[in-house]
Amino acid sequence: MKTTAATSSALVLIILSACIITAYAQVPWPVRSRAASAPRARLPQAGQTDPNAKAPEISPILQKLLKVNTQTRPDAPQALPSSRTSRAGTMSLRTADFYLRDGKLVFGKLISEDKNKVTIEQIDGSIIIVATYSKRDIDPRTLQTKNISASKYYQDLAEYFAGRTWDFKDDPDDFIQAIRCYERAKLLITGTSQLDAERIRQIDKTIAQLQADRDVWTTQVQSRAKLKQLEFQAEFQTRFKELEDKIDTSTRKIDESVAQLNKILAEIQENQMNLEQNLPLLEQDLRRRLDILGEQVEINRRRMGPYNTYGPRRPYGYYGPRY
Fold first, then answer.
1. CB under 8 Å to 155, separation ≥6 — which residues?
2. pTM to 2 decimals?
3. 26 to each of 20, 30, 61, 63, 124, how far by Cα in Å?
């Protein structure tokens, strides 16, 4: 009886071991550990026709065994990343535009703003400057700020500078600024979508075109300078003759002016000599007239005196104020 019992126990252990090995073989490798707070739904296995069918239950002993094997195996494969790449956040910046009280429009990238002043990065011809404006000079009703994409802002700047080329006025600076802004706009495109890749390819194509245009511009400027030099050499004799004629005409005018000035000076000197010669005679005549005038004044004073016996005679019958 003891032998039969021992044999039965051995058979039970063998069957139990076979069941464990069979269940272990059916579980896919590796088995991920489940989160206690948020269990993840299992994907249906091959051969299952019902998508809502429950996964087979595994005994606690087998779960523990599988967990230990997964943690201890050094060659356990890691979880593969998702094939979908998330788009990085787009960098943005703030712009501002406003009118000054004198009617001038100001716009550009907003550097800083407080209750007293506004600092703006703005365009001044072919350069970019940073200017600070007092709030007292700004019409507060026109001040507007908004957020835009940084790459779009620098792409617009690049298009502005590219549009200023070929006017033969600050063209080297315009080419450099346009290429620099396009490069910065390309670096600020942080997405990985097909549209972003197409934008980067388009910017690279535009930069290459600008560089080619700059090379052509350099060649044409050199040719233009040579043509101007040849034109100057061809017209050198004619221009030199014209310059000589202008100099001769100016010299004649100067000589005429000098002669006229000398004539005026001679007349002034003659008048001065006449004045110096006639001055004593004028002085004598003036003294004589003053003496005559003094004598007349003295005679009139004597006649008007109270004891003047030679004064005018009173009419007959006049006895004065006392009678």
1. 181, 182, 185, 203
2. 0.46
3. 10, 12, 16, 13, 74
